[in-house]
Amino acid sequence: MRRKFQDEPSQPLESREPKAAIPPPPTMHHSNSKRLTPLHGHYLPQLCRPILWYLLIAFLLLTFLHYKQARTSISRTAICLVGGARRFELTGPTILEHVLNVLPEADLFVHSNLDENTFKLALLRSAPRVTEMRIRRPVRFRETEGHMRLLSAGSSPNGIQGLLQYFDLVEGCLNMIAAYETQGNFTYDWILRTRVDGYWTGPLDIKAFKTDSYVVPEGSRYGGLNDRLGIGNRSISAVALSRLSLLPNLALAGFSDLNSESAFHAQLKVFNIPAEELRFPFCILSDRQYKYPPSGDIAPVASIASPGPLSGAKCRPCVPHCKGECIEKLGPEKWLGWTEWRNGSLELCDGSQPWQEGWEEFFDKVADKVTADMRHKVKEMTTEVCWQDMKGLKKNAGRWNGPDPIEICNLGSTSQ
């Protein structure tokens, strides 16, 4: 006999209470009224349809632009920071705030010579990402007859040797990037190259990343192109940053008597790379002395208090010696490739003298509090504190290629 399960119904199926019937959909009644069914979408006035199309197109366009901007900001970027750390206690905090923190996902590569100021690079301990630190002992390059014909010694404080040193620092940073790419089996989308002695007064604009040209600052051309900052995609940057190895190509092309800026311009020209000049909110802190007032090929020295943007011009902290009508009388349009100076954007120092007495007080008033506090911290830094900070930087760096932190700090303490 079939076994009766406990959950089996005790009543016959016919005696169960029937489920409620689902009502049929309402019947569509046709009439002679002008109301149309929503099925065909003709209930909207005819004039609304073009407006909806325009709104849809605008929405798609804004979505595309937002995606393009977001893609630029998150794509793989390498930042190449080169040069000596002479005034890095003044420039470092501004580079951190206005460049490195603007691109926190970018990989930072630092290439600098070892000297008594190298300990100041410890400020990079707080950088978002430090991929490699390369601090090399100074090397001297052999100056060939070809270098003598191709390059001009007059525009460099250390002559042709100074140019070769600078070119090698730039290209050495590119080699660091290439080695890291090989190790990780990937390629960067962008490379941004800037200098350790750059004093930034505002954030880097990611709109400066252009796929079809190499972006450089406007002005300070000196017969070529401003080479104090450069932004380009990977293939363009490979040419722009090969400052030393491509010198024979410039010689074969017939160039001669080039300074850094004109050699850079010739380099892009030989390889058919278009350059685009934009204004950037930074200047180069310089201890060099220049004749005053500036004229012709004499470099102007701007005050860091200038509203700017100064686009990589030489600058220093000073109570302005010339501004407003004084600037107009000097005629800045006659200077070599000077950037925009109208509307009070430029204030000049007397660059013929050393930094004026009391510049520290002036700097602290002009700079933000973080930068001013950092200047005091570095000035009062003990060897022990330096050692701890440099060890922290070494620990944070993905790769450390340089002397032991204690050697760097001891070298710095002897100069203070």
From TrEMBL:
Recite the UniProt keywords alphabetically: Membrane, Transmembrane, Transmembrane helix
Name of the molecule in the record:
DUF7796 domain-containing protein
Superkingdom of the source species: Eukaryota
What PANTHER family has UniProt attached to this entry? OS08G0360500 PROTEIN, RING_FYVE_PHD ZINC FINGER SUPERFAMILY PROTEIN
DUF7796 domain: from which residue to which, for each copy? 74-413
Chain intervals for the UniProt region annotation (Disordered): 1-34
Which Pfam families does the protein's record reference? DUF7796
Q: Where are the transmembrane segments?
A: 51-67
